[in-house]
Fold:
Amino acid sequence: MIAIIDLGMGNLRSVEKALHKLGYPAGVTSHAPTVAKAPAIILPGVGAFAKAMASIERLGLRPVIEKTIADGKPFLGICLGLQLLFEVSEEFGEVDGLGIMRGRVTKLSGPMFAAPAATRLEGGGTLGRDDIRPAFAKTKSGAPLPAWDPVPADFGRPAPAKPEAPAGQGLKVPHIGWNSIRIASLHPVLAGIPEGSMFYFVHSYAPEPAETDAIRTTTEYGIEFASSVGRRNLFACQFHPEKSGRVGLRLLENFARLAYPKGPGSF
Structure:
């Protein structure tokens, strides 16, 4: 069973359901021995960096995560799960992370951005927005959209290289919505995913990796930031593959096959 780590933050069932749809065994757990026995681990999350790190320490998961990666088991970090891998986050001062990846997590900032909004998310607090869950949006008739194919009309087309804000305004933070990726270097988890593919983002902070050769994709939103990193058995992304339609499912399938090379039904 692929272990999806539960830090008590964010909706984890969408990741679990996506893997079940693909035919792979997966379960949500915060039990360190169960995580340690899993053939692969996913660390998702939406919320505050400091709270997530406190949960990791309280649950005894730090040594389990470190050993999983050191032993070569497949590891996938999603959104906050990407940020936690780095040495430090600048959210509300400086907070130490796991230090598995060298570098810092910093807020999206610069002249392209509007003044900070009251709503913060991911590395910056709570959401209070419904559009974080595009798979559960409704049509005009009130019927729910397909849960596993929330694909926009421009799916697969590159986003503008430099997103434009309305006249007199800056880009909003948090960065919420669909955006494209540029593939900087290859990784097995990116197999079959085209350049310019669209993924769904919800974040206020992004990593600044010190190891630039670990950057697998970048995305532009006012600035160019690392939207995924990876090395050997580790891959982590700032976007949400479980909310990104067919291309997101392909990424999760690629990851699951690192643990189950023969695919669904081989366990």
Remarks:
- The radius of gyration is 17 Å.
- The chain has one domain: 2-259.
- Residues 36 and 67 are 8 Å apart (CA to CA).
- The first helix runs from residue 13 to 22.
